[in-house]
Amino acid sequence: MRFSWDAFLARYGPLARLIARPLARPPATADDLVQEALLALHEALTREPGCFADEEHARNYFLRALRNQAGKVLRRAGREQPLGDELAADDPDALELRLVRERHELVARCLDELAAPDRELLTRRLLEGHTLQRIADERGVPRSTLHEREQALLAHLRQRCARLENRPEAAR
Amino acid sequence: MKPEPTHDDALAPERLARLAERAEHDPSASAELDFLADLAAGLELTRARQAAPARPPAPRFLVRPWLPAAAASLLFLLALGAWLLRDDRHTDQRFAAREAPPYLASELRGAEAPSGFAAAMEPYTRGDWPAARTGLEACLAERPEHGPTRFYLAVVCDQLGDLARAEELYRGATASPDTLLAGHARLRLAQLLVERGDLGGARAELERLVESVGELAPSARALLETLGER
Given an 8 Å threshold on Cβ–Cβ distance, is B187 in contact with A43? Predict the structure, then answer.
């Protein structure tokens, strides 16, 4: 499998940071964990360039390395301190990156169609890692109402993105 | 007290970590993980656009239509000249063997990092090694104990061919056992020592990596086997 680092990071970097955020313990930051997982993937690809059949396998390896690394950091923290809180069309890498970016443009278009409070809800949940309870308290609404809204938004976005990409689940 | 996420809190990071685990053998979980990854990236894009200052309208008639083409031609000629005059007596082969690892630049670097670290790593991501070196040397002077600064400065010196400085920095990075990058520093140090002809030193570093039984042990073992053939 040919591998595009830029495309891979553009696609999975934000999600990896979200997963890493609650797992990081000082002195390591969430970014340190993600970077370490990235180094592990880089090392695996350097050792055996064809070791991943497709991007999905590379993604699984990357996220597994992230979880393993977080486990190490947690164990170490437990011993040491209490837990605290553009592009040429004939370049395949560039093409891969362009496809990922196009997908993100499409998702961003769907997000732009949402009402500002809905977009803010998803931003706080997926980029800042805020809990539903915290947002519910701030907005003065029941957590269950917010949870239903979030589920409805995710279902809507799944269907909207699928329709724009002409995928079969759009018909459901 | 921070409430625990409930079982249906699909976006809780702990839940996403379990989804990533399930995605390894469950295609529907894999598709859901990709959807959420794209959603997170789309949200970052939207947020970045909202945060970007509005661009002033471009002044009209200021740039002649032929000017970009002329500038591009000039840049091409300069680049061609630089390429023809480059000194690559000992570079290409070694770079292929020990290229710089990619760096995920982000705003999340915490208070531990020196103040100029994020700015210093920008040229690194572009492969502008001299600029990255200047920035990282300043960072190291500010925070000598910051492991990532030492490691990436070593990588930069390595790329620039300053092997003595790279060796010193890699050794420094391996000496701090709590540094997440210590293993990678040791592996790269061993590769550098091979290049400098210190096969005994390289073996010693690789054996320590093999003994650590960490993720880098297979790479160290493979390199040890290669060294055994010399």
Answer: yes
